[in-house]
Amino acid sequence: MGWPESHEFARYTCYRTAGPIVIDGKLDEPSWKLAPRSSPFVDIITGQPAWFDTRVALLWDDTYLYFGFIAEEADVWATLTERDSRIYEDNDVEVFIAGQDAYYEFEINALNTVYEVFWIWKDIFKSGNPYYGRPEFNPDMHPTLEISGIGGHVHPRGERWGFLDWDFPGLLHGVHVDGTLNKRAGTDKGWSVELAFPWKGLELLADGRSLPPRDGDVWRIDCSRFEQVDPQGQRLDPSAGWTWNRHGHYDSHIPETFTYVRFSTQVVGAGLK
Q1: Which CATH number covers residue 256?
Q2: How many structural domains compose the chain?
Q3: In 10 A of CB 207, how many CB atoms?
Q4: Residue 244's domain spans which residues?
Q5: Rounded to an integer, what distance in angstroms lies between the CA atom of residue 239 and that of residue 109?
Q6: Rounded to a whole number, what is the largest CA-CA distance in the chain?
Q7: Percent of the chain with pLDDT over 70
């Protein structure tokens, strides 16, 4: 399967792992050393370079879809320790995985605290849709958010429900700090994040695609980072948003702007000398 016609958004080939991966945040397995890294993240609105380097790599095997982030940071800090706290109020890295009528949002800070939301577009939330009638997606029974966009942007598709207590089944996550967390001395090098999402949990977004994917299958996946202070250490409002490719708006929730990730059944590094 070839790439889509559009050249506006980033493209990435996700290869199979070359061996087991331990989710400890260190990205020290041979597979990570061979996996291609993304281009540096850029400003979510303008596409201009960020002041800290941030990159991500993806891998997969028969059980998991893996993400490995490397985030440069002179002062690694985090404050939130309770699951599903507003992690976007700390420095964080984020993953969005899109299906046709829904998408999943994941955020994590340097304390390894996570925030998750499963979003469903309201225009399809009716009888006959696979999400409708499922107890975990009953807006009368679960805490939800309702948005039409973020940061003043309104998506043409309109509102969606975000189910705040939905947890990705079997999710594994780990963080490693290259420095001293919360020392506030400005001498750290950064932090890295390792994630493993079981394919089973992605059935809700597969839209009939094979899990694990077939060779050449393409998914829309966004990876991003939000930074709460400027290079001088002053608090930002709003925070700086850096994404794999430019969105054009201060809004992470635009699936049409997500990177094209194509899956390859080739083992990472195969053929390299």
Answers
A1: 2.60.40.1190
A2: 1
A3: 13
A4: 11-78+90-112+165-267
A5: 14
A6: 57
A7: 96
